[in-house]
Specification:
UDP N-Acetylglucosamine Acyltransferase, domain 1; alpha/beta; 10 helices
């Protein structure tokens, strides 16, 4: 038994196996949310105690909502329009990690996004700043959770149900033992309705005028049309 345990420990590798300098870069990027919050709070403090309260308050709102999408779009050009796969330890994965850190504040403090949804059209406009393609008259129900905000393609007059989750990425462990980050847009056609408490991961496509059942988790790269769903990608070769 001791010999068998030592063999198993010898062949085991970390789930996220990247070089030390790469991991250091990930740690440094993880400070982005803290820096982001510090900038906003700093401007509000100066607005409270300074002489230019109105301009500084406006600047704090701009830093909170406008700086993140602009910072992301400057770096992620070419990664937001089509399917991508990036091995852990690659530049592509690190760019995605950087972009994710600019979104952490909104994921941890969902009230910030909920406040945008109170104004019709404002949340859709904000998503477009990230690079998402959002149609007209889209209704976002309360409790929506989104990651990778640039990887959304939403048609006109779409209704997204309460507590829906849109996650356009996942990590795939390949038979070779290599882990890849897979990014693919979520596409929802005109006049479709996404049922409440749905989970839509990378590559999901909802056809126009369809209504998906509430509470359903979809598999990655699923196409929903004519009231049923089918997988469009199943194997590693389809991702290449």
């Amino acid at each position: 038994m001791p010999a068998e345990s030592s063999v198993n420990q010898a062949v085991a590798t970390p789930a996220i196996d990247v070089p030390g300098r790469y991991r250091l870069a990930m740690v440094l990027f993880a400070y982005i949310p803290l820096i982001h919050v510090a900038m906003v709070v700093g401007l509000l403090v100066f607005a409270w105690y300074g002489e230019h309260a109105a301009p500084l308050t406006i600047a704090s709102v701009a830093v909170l909502y406008l700086l993140p999408p602009l910072a992301v779009r400057l770096v992620t050009r070419g990664m937001t329009t089509e399917r991508n796969a990036h091995v852990l330890g690659s530049r592509g994965f690190l760019v995605w990690w950087y972009a994710t850190q600019w979104q952490i504040v909104f994921n941890r403090l969902p009230l910030l996004e909920e406040s945008l949804r109170l104004v019709p059209g404002l949340y859709s406009t904000w998503l477009r700043l990230w690079g998402a393609k959002i149609g007209r008259l889209v209704y976002w129900s309360p409790g929506l959770k989104v990651s990778d905000r640039s990887l959304l393609t939403i048609g006109d007059r779409v209704v997204v149900g309460i507590d829906a989750k849109l996650y356009p990425h996942f990590l795939a462990l390949l038979p070779s033992g290599v882990t890849e980050l897979v990014l693919a847009p979520i596409q929802i056609g005109h006049d479709a309705l996404v049922g409440g408490c749905s989970l839509l991961p990378a590559g999901v496509t909802i056809a126009p005028c369809e209504q998906t059942p509430g509470g359903r988790p979809f598999a990655p790269f699923t196409e929903f049309s004519n009231g049923s769903h089918r997988r469009t990608i199943r194997f590693r070769k389809d991702l290449e």
